[in-house]
Amino acid sequence: MTVPVDLVPVEPRVSAPFPPAAPPPPQHSPRGSARGAALLKEPFKVPTSPSQLRPPPAVGGGRPAAMALVETAVRGRLLPWPRVVLFGDSITEFSFQEGGWGASLASRLVRKCDVVNRGFSGYNSRWAKLILPRLIAGGAAAESTVAVTIFFGANDSALKDVNPRQHVPLEEYAANLTSMVRYLKSIDITEDRIILITPPPLQESAWEKECLAKGDKLNRRNATTGEYAQACVQVARDCGTDVLDLWTLMQKDQDFSCYLSDGLHLSMKGNNFLVGQLWSHLEKRLSALPSLLPYWRDVDPQNPEVSLLGAALQE
Amino acid sequence: MTVPVDLVPVEPRVSAPFPPAAPPPPQHSPRGSARGAALLKEPFKVPTSPSQLRPPPAVGGGRPAAMALVETAVRGRLLPWPRVVLFGDSITEFSFQEGGWGASLASRLVRKCDVVNRGFSGYNSRWAKLILPRLIAGGAAAESTVAVTIFFGANDSALKDVNPRQHVPLEEYAANLTSMVRYLKSIDITEDRIILITPPPLQESAWEKECLAKGDKLNRRNATTGEYAQACVQVARDCGTDVLDLWTLMQKDQDFSCYLSDGLHLSMKGNNFLVGQLWSHLEKRLSALPSLLPYWRDVDPQNPEVSLLGAALQE
């Protein structure tokens, strides 16, 4: 089944916020049995019309018996759908709001994997460490997890005397991050699939206004948050994971205030900055993921079953 | 453990595209054993400090043994995380792009369920019917699926003589939709969790430009798409599922051209329109879903384990 090159046009797309992803390779056929990390290594399998598979007749208005056979054969041959888990505090929880970095990531990775939001507004690393085993378990779920971002520190670095409820001591923050990475490794989510993200810098004047509006004093300091960011970078080094040092990157030779909406959370520009940076970390490892199910121009209209179910029926 | 009302403040949020969701009810505690549809019916469980559970000591810098015990106890007690599945063509596949209806839905449902994108650009209902069993299987995955949107017809209604590759006859389109609903019911995704969405209206002049740019003739007609929309509504009636008649709603007493970006796909305004309409269908059934894990102000800082793991440890 060969599709002439001139029949593969550019897909009409609604205005994309990013440069469109590379066009899907023709004739990819992710194998039903491939899972998680294996997917990253597995080359695209070019489907052939196997001699042992007699293509079912083209689907017309009424061939229920043949279709029932196909459906029965395919049932239980679930297509593994990888996922990226975003684990963090409010900056993660809000990441699917308009222009958010989570939604942008999901859009870039569409047909490749799901991007699931495990953001918990207000949480610190102490609480995060406790709930992580309730969010990601070992086995198939871990195998299908191709990347995890761990993004805490904005609450941990709250000042102890003004905000003791959220504050976590620096050493414990580092220990908690280490513990989370260790937990993930223990369920076979290897360090190459983990990305730590440091808290962004804090714009004290803007955040102070938010605090004052609630009758509180300024409860965070940029310099303190910077210490937590540094600790996060060190944990990543020690654990052999990737790290995105947002605190440093956002302050590098520029005024970072435009990246924040209220001094603490990300503005639209901050969301774009984060997803751009994160993408440079993820692209290299996730670009190898196959686009799931064939590009529509590659579906044989006479025998869609072969194009769409071929891999599953061969197993 | 009672939190005084005046201690539950409004959470600072970055600019939300929609009215913010209702604040999470205090002290909710979704049960680890509750699943899927059961979650919808299950009332919030107010956690108590059970006499049989001795709260572990507050986590300080170094109580690894106690923490290890907690972690061991919780392992395997995965918090069930419901999901909404968006199944459709390019209008679904592109739904996480900037301002997209899928991302908006995910934002509204954050901490309640995942919204996963199963959009396949260019696909028609004939192909969709074939792949559905590869995307949603029975068992736990079906149980956790609290809603499915089935959104095809924009490609099926392509004109047979100009676009035979995507065209599906009207009767077969209806039969395919019916078959998909039947499949979902067969794996215990009941009709009350299924929403059919009709194709949007087609703005012929704009879409013709797109076709001409590719050297093609206009390959769809609004009147024809309307017949498919009508068939979709009829299938929903016959199957007892909900339906969102986008084709009719977008043309009701208004010029619908603003809802489309290229005559076929949704513009930002069209995305907003769709998510607004869809939300009115989903809100009533998904608003009862508990917000997963406690609101941060409800976490007892002295005994976060009780707040965060209480339900899991009780099982």
Structure in words:
The structure is a homodimer of 315-residue chains. With 315 residues, the first copy, chain A, is an alpha/beta fold. The first copy, chain A, has a domain at 83-286: 3-Layer(aba) Sandwich (Rossmann fold), CATH 3.40.50. Chain A has helices at 36-41, 64-74, 90-93, 101-108, 125-135, 140-143, 170-186, 204-213, 222-239, 246-251, 268-286, 304-314, and strands spanning 83-88, 114-119, 145-151, 194-197, 242-244. A five-stranded parallel sheet of chain A has the order 2-1-3-4-5, sandwiched between helices. The two termini of chain A are 20 Å apart. The model of chain A is unreliable at 1-66 (pLDDT under 50). Chains A and B meet through helix 2, helix 4, strand 2, helix 5 and helix 7 of A and helix 2, helix 4, strand 2, helix 5 and helix 7 of B.
Quick tags:
homodimer, identical protein binding (chains A, B), elongated, disordered N terminus, SGNH_hydro_sf (chains A, B), 5-stranded parallel β-sheet, GDSL (chains A, B), 315 residues, Isoamyl acetate-hydrolyzing esterase 1 homolog (chains A, B), alpha/beta, Iah1-like (chains A, B), Rossmann fold
